[in-house]
């Protein structure tokens, strides 16, 4: 669940043809979309009063639109504690990161503030970050910003910026997507592009599933 893992992978795998030294041990990161059944059953099909032939008290029909479900935006506060994280194959990858990247997993801490926000404490060396709730949806616009110096002999620095977003199906389960933009700064970035086949800035997205494990 980190940009650092993407940058490390970029250096250690994609840049091997440049004989670049990898100075960052890519952990698993990534994520997946195993849409855990968020059967948001909203439109409960059924107000089947088909053809109520006007026999009622002439209430100008105001609002029998059935299930005017204002509950579709019901807020879901995630449960504080330790959560499990699983990711899968990339859903967007124009950085030419190897296709078997993903299918990683791990754990992280989550602290719910009961005010429409929560804090995630990653277990990957990146800093804690804040997320905002909008009903059942969440957004973490400042997931991480990382820099990786490729090698002292190259004037090229990789910069990755990531965000995360998704939806809770209940206080203990959610699915979402992490996305990262990877850019390069320095006079030798053309060499990096030639070696990787990427064109900076490039984009990487991976879907994930998270679920509460323990604590509170």
Task: Briefly characterize the structure.
This protein has 216 residues and is mainly beta. It has helices spanning 3-14, 189-196, and strands spanning 81-93, 105-112, 117-121, 129-134, 137-149, 157-170, 173-185, 202-214.
What does this structure look like?
- The protein is mostly beta strands and about 220 residues long.
- The protein has one domain (about 5-35, about 75-215).
- The chain contains 2 helices and 8 strands.
- It has helices at about 5-15, 190-195, and strands at about 80-95, 105-110, 115-120, 130-135, 135-150, 155-170, 175-185, 200-215.
- It has an 8-stranded antiparallel barrel with strand order 1-2-3-4-5-6-7-8.
- The relative contact order is 0.26.
- Mean pLDDT is about 75; it is low at about 10-70.
Please write out the topology:
Elements: H1 3-14, E1 81-93, E2 105-112, E3 117-121, E4 129-134, E5 137-149, E6 157-170, E7 173-185, H2 189-196, E8 202-214
Antiparallel strand pairs: 1-2, 1-8, 2-3, 3-4, 4-5, 5-6, 6-7, 7-8
Poorly predicted residue ranges:
12-71
Q: What spatial order of strands do you see in the largest sheet?
A: 1-2-3-4-5-6-7-8
Order of helices and strands: HEEEEEEEHE
| Percent of sequence in beta strands | 35-45%
How many helices does DSSP assign?
Answer: 2
Return the domain count. Answer: 1
Radius of gyration: 23 Å
> Main beta sheet, described?
8 strands, antiparallel, barrel
Q: How much helical structure, as a percent, in the residues? A: under 10%
Mean pLDDT: 73
Question: Would you report the number of β strands?
Answer: 8
Structural class by secondary-structure content: mainly beta
Shape, please? elongated
- End-to-end span in angstroms? 22 Å
Q: Indicate the multimeric state.
A: single chain
